[in-house]
Design brief:
- The complex is a heterodimer of chains A (426) and B (269).
- Chain A has helices at residues 14-22, 25-33, 49-70, 78-87, 92-119, 128-150, 155-166, 175-183, 190-219, 240-265, 295-303, 313-326, 331-334, 346-367, 374-399, 409-425; strands at 38-40, 237-239.
- With 426 residues, chain A is mainly alpha-helical.
- A two-stranded antiparallel ribbon of chain A has the order 1-2.
- Chain B has a domain at 36-44 and 52-79 and 124-200 and 223-244: Cytochrome c-like domain (Cytochrome Bc1 Complex, Chain D, domain 2, Orthogonal Bundle).
- In chain B, the strands form 2 sheets. A two-stranded antiparallel sheet of chain B has the order 1-2. In chain B, strands 3-4 form a two-stranded antiparallel sheet.
- Chain B is mainly alpha-helical and 269 residues long.
């Protein structure tokens, strides 16, 4: 693991020496996120988001455990128990709003983390396993977030659960029994709420476990960097501590500033008014819309309106929605270009930015009612999404002629500084 | 192997989508409701903006409007009498206010259902015994609980205020199918334009002890301000704590930035 020049943990204090002999936990931390982990010296701010995602997970687990002390997972009292937290529990409003907006912050940083991975080719060999575990984390996050949104038992909780579990009923023959088995009934009810609460408490710890594997897998090849060139010798790297702990500390400050602004000044901006109405199985909201972080996928689901071949439109939508995430598992093999960073990939870079715009477009369409022009825009958006990963990317990675690359990270860094200093003198 | 298979899967999705585009009509069905529906008017309150505070006199007037008008049909079941101490009432006033309500209870000798005088720890009682009774009294419409109403509607307080002040005669060009039926009232701020609630406020309906204006707009603004408080009694505190947390983190960020620059000073990157 890691590079030959990695610093070795040498405890000075007798207590730490004793501990290191019996249980080398400080050594593990030292090698994972301490001075024992050499990291490329040229990482930009996009490399902050891994640590920030970890911080967001920690915030969600801590606030969630406190909320669970006051929340009651029973369909008759769940809604009022959330209001009890908001009104009667000491600082309950803060814990609840922090958890609510913490979920959004978690998705924001994870989406930026994924953006970084896509732009700088972090998913490619030798880091395929890091990427695969990351996609697993993303799927677990989506399941956890969905079930968490059901717990306040408001109108959008109930109808969201109705719609999302309804995906399973699109499966031929076994679909309806599977859906009833998942819900524990014919419609979302107390059985559903209880199992969702149980799983919502369990899954974050599963995520934590996969995060540990994700970091473990990362430490074998070491971190990627903006040039995408692998580390060659010691001068390409700096020890994680203090260099990147300091930079991540600053990143954490900015992250918390945005988090605090959202939580204290506009806590309901990303939510839905309907979720302050208690769940009612007899009254369907005018627009059932998922949380913002699911919107692009929801737009893909709704884009399929035609029964093609023997598969009906609904099943197409469900397959495409799950497929749009599942294809990420194959990304390291869909993209055969050995060049990682988009900096040296002139053609890929263009299509990548179209993809970014496309995902925003899909997100916007996901919010809208099933009316034109939103339907056709989401259909066009979905076409580009699948075309990008399954058609364009394999072709581009074959025909593209990469730009000339520096020989090493250090050379790239020194060239950049030579540029800026000559620009300064000129 | 992955690439040819992926290509085929991609082609399948794309074909299904192209066919979906070709078979989906580009024109929307005409929806006349959209033409008459209005967006809520803005209502300015002391609890808005960057430095929110509670206008306690207004909240007290709003509570009076709720008690004398709205509470005939609408419950407020998340608000306890003890909570209204925050509106500037003394403990004695809260007790006296609670005592003015009869709350469900049991007879301590027989166990039969009974009522008793309200206590500070009680919640605002519901005007109806249950949903069936509420619907029976309201032409089968159910008056919603108002505790969270300003958070539970798109448009929030602006919507509530606009709805209260927006009752009017239907415009002459309103299509027949959108005209209010029996027991319904035209209101362009309501989603489907026709509302079961009759115009609740009339000029001079409530007399305020401080002699504040009691036209429909003023009373609507007062009761909306009160309902903003019932929906989020911790709003002002929340923003105040937010400033403290923000300031703390701003200093934290400056210090971490300086230490980051200091640590990296000798390292080109």
């Amino acid at each position: 693991m890691s590079f030959p020049w990695a610093k070795n943990y040498e405890p000075q204090q007798p207590l730490m020496k004793w501990l290191d002999e019996k249980l080398p936990l400080p050594r593990l931390v030292y090698n994972a996120i301490g001075a024992g982990y050499p990291v490329p010296r040229n990482l930009n701010y996009f490399w902050n988001f891994g640590v920030l995602a970890g911080a967001a997970l920690a915030i969600q687990i801590i606030t969630g455990i406190v909320l669970a002390m006051h929340y009651a997972a029973n369909a008759t009292v769940a809604f009022n128990s959330v209001e009890h937290i908001m009104r009667d529990v000491n600082a309950g409003w803060f814990i609840r709003y922090a958890h609510m907006n913490g979920a959004s912050m978690f998705f924001i940083v994870v989406y930026l983390h994924i953006f970084r991975g896509l732009y700088y080719g972090s998913y490619k060999a030798p880091r395929e396993m890091v990427w695969l575990l990351g996609v697993v984390i993303f799927l677990l996050m989506m399941a956890t977030a969905f079930m968490g949104y059901v717990l306040p038992w408001g109108q959008m909780s109930f109808w969201g659960a109705q719609v999302i579990t309804g995906f399973f009923s699109a499966i031929p023959i076994v679909g309806e029994p599977v859906r009833e088995w998942l819900l524990g009934g014919f419609v979302p009810d107390n059985a559903t709420l209880n199992r969702f609460f149980s799983l919502h408490y369990l899954l974050p710890f599963v995520i934590l476990g996969v995060v540990i594997l994700h970091i473990w897998a990362l430490h074998i090849p070491g971190s990627n960097n903006p040039t995408g060139i692998e580390v060659k010798d010691e001068q390409d790297t700096v020890p994680f501590h203090p260099y990147y702990t300091a930079k991540d500390g600053f990143g954490l400050g900015i992250f918390l500033l945005i988090f605090v602004a959202l939580t204290f000044f506009s806590p309901n901006a990303l939510g839905h008014a309907d979720n302050y109405i208690p769940a009612n199985s007899l009254s369907t909201p005018a627009h059932i819309v998922p949380e913002w972080y699911f919107l692009p996928f929801y737009a893909i689901l709704k884009a399929f309106t035609f029964n093609f071949l023997w598969i009906d439109a609904k099943l197409w939508g469900v397959i495409a929605m799950f497929g749009s995430i599942a294809l990420l598992f194959f990304l390291p093999w869909l993209d055969s270009s050995p060049v990682k960073s988009s900096t040296y990939r002139p053609l890929y870079r263009i299509f990548f930015w179209i993809l970014v715009v496309d995902v925003f477009l899909l997100g916007w369409c996901g919010m809208q009612p099933a009316e034109q022009p939103w339907v056709i825009l989401s259909q066009l958006g979905a076409i580009y999404y699948f075309a990008h990963f399954l058609v364009i990317l394999p072709i581009v990675s074959r025909i593209e002629r990469p730009l000339p690359m520096p020989n090493s990270i250090t050379e790239a860094v020194l060239a950049k500084h030579a540029d800026t200093s000559s620009a300064a003198t000129a | 192997m992955v690439r040819p298979l992926g290509f085929l899967v991609g082609l399948g999705f794309i074909t299904a989508l192209v066919l979906a585009i070709l078979t989906t009509p580009l024109a929307n069905e005409h929806n006349a409701t959209h033409e008459f529906h209005k967006h809520p008017e803005k209502l300015k309150l002391a609890s808005d903006g960057l430095v929110p505070h509670w206008d306690k006199a207004q909240l007290q007037r709003g509570m009076q409007v709720y008690k004398e008008v709205c509470s005939a049909c609408h419950s407020l079941h998340l608000v306890a009498f003890r909570d209204i101490g925050e509106l500037g009432y003394t403990e004695g006033q809260v007790k006296a206010f609670a005592k003015g309500f009869q709350v469900p209870s049991i007879n301590p000798d027989t166990g039969e259902p009974a009522t008793r005088d309200g206590l500070s720890s009680d919640y605002f009682p519901s005007p109806y015994a249950n949903e069936t009774a509420a619907r029976a009294a309201n032409n089968n419409a159910l008056p919603p609980d108002l505790s969270l109403i300003t958070k539970a509607r798109e448009g929030g307080k602006d919507y509530v205020y606009s709805l209260l002040t927006g009752f009017q005669n239907p415009p002459a060009n309103l299509p027949a199918e959108l005209k209010p039926g029996t027991g319904l009232h035209y209101n362009p701020y309501f989603a489907n334009l026709n509302l079961a609630m009759a115009p609740p406020l009339t000029k001079g309906q409530v007399t305020f002890a401080d002699g504040s204006p009691n036209d429909v707009k003023s009373m609507a603004a007062d009761v909306t301000a009160f309902l903003v408080w019932t929906a989020e009694p911790k709003l002002v505190k929340r923003v105040q704590v937010g400033y403290a947390a923000f300031l703390f983190l701003l200093i934290f960020s400056v210090l971490t930035y300086l230490s980051y620059r200091n640590i990296w000073a000798d390292k080109k990157h």
